[in-house]
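User: Predict DUF4139 domain-containing protein's structure from this.
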Amino acid sequence: MIRPLLLVAALAAIVPAGDLLARETVDASAPNELAVTVYRDPQRGEGERMDRRWPEGFAMISEVRTLTLPPGESKIRFTGVAEGMVAVSAIVTGLPGGTIEKNRNADLLSPAALVDRTLGNRVTITRTDPASGAARSEQAIVRTRADGGLVLETQDGFEAVRCSGLPEKLTFDQVPSGLSPQPVFSINTRSDSGGTYTVTLSYLAWGFDWEANYVARLHEARADGSLRMELLSWLTILNDNNQSFPDATLMAVAGTLSVESHFEELADEPEARPLRLTCYPFGSTATGSPLLYPPPPPPPPPPPAMAAMAMDAESIVVTGSRIQKVMAEAAAPLSVIAAEEALGDLKLYRIPEPVTVAAQGQKQVAFLDKDEVEARFIYVVGCDYGEVDEADEVEHFDPARLILATKNEKSKGLGQSLPMGGIAIYEPTSFGDLLVAETRLRDFALLEDIELDLPQSTQVFAQCGHVDDEDIDKERRWVRKRAQVSNANDAAITVRLDLGTAGYTKIRGLKGTRIKDGRLIYETEVPANSRRILRFRERND
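Assistant:
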């Protein structure tokens, strides 16, 4: 009896204690702190809207958790990570021994996974007699996987589930190890002495996006032609994952980010596989096959990516009357407004209070609330092509293109970077605020001119072109041109003539031309209810 004990002691002396013991599994606590930084879809163009049913942006998620490690090697499970987690991007800091290995579970707790993990183990099968309603239960052993028919071994032999003609159900004594209703990320680590630690898990996750939405309210024009505009904007954060992030520090990053990886392919979210049972016909060719017990109904179709977006018609109305009512009737200014910060060449908007980023939902946070934005209307007339007949008094006039212009600086009431998004423009009337235009913004930096394209004017018409070919200066190639602008408004307007490509077009007879966005332009004022004619010469080099 002494020699076996000596042999065990000798083995313990030459083999590390951690190798003699099975690696212990440790479950990290639920997140104590959460931070979610959402990046826009890098492939979304300036004029494109966020796809609320299939978002292709991503988020950087940081979770602070606590855990207690035993001495030696152990496996740490982080339950409840985002299903769109990009596992290769995950890092864990705060561990005494670092990370030896990391894994992402492939299966969520589901009927099929439950059957597969119980293969060879006992379950309870209960059959109910439809005539008497009596239920009978017995023990059985699972003998096949859940990829076709499910076969159990009972005292009477081998039986296929749902093929006896009686209502049946399976009862499992426990959830097999490794299965969880929430996605799980695990790592292997080592601690010489063990202890309780606070660690941070950071990773990228697929299935997020965000955009800005603006609501503008115009007021009457001033004497100098400018007008006052109220501007309210919201950040709309979209989370298409099935996990919520309660009381999180929420941030959104604007700007063009270079992304080489395809996060959707790297995410490889875990699957919750349904259990589909198949029964084979039995009987004989002479008597035919008897009527089988009706198969179970097919699983319900998966919910749309944003749960049918019921909120779209209720909570997320940005350009409708609800936001306007908030603007007009709010008794106090907005208390939570996202603050802008610099992030290299990008812009970061930080929400000052913890918010919950709900699963399959949207979150809106105000980031801009300006009451005194100075803007003006400009009517644009193209003058780089066409021909007119100066002797003909009945001429064809085209509607001028209308734009709403301002400058992103504090003196104009702004002075903050504006991320791209949609804008709805309202104007007060005797019947309340009415929608007059809806358009899109690109990203605007500080000190940039902001010009929003609006529908063509119904009050201002113009025509512009060269007068005739006979007046061409053969040597210097100067061409006579004429522009006519008709203003039916009750106030003076600003008209901009687009004269052509800068550097290619030369103009005589118009003082004050300038270059804007690569175009040669000239701006002038046209009085109310009048027509103005401008004559000049042009040469194209």
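The helical segments are 2-14, 17-20, 111-117, 263-267, 321-329.
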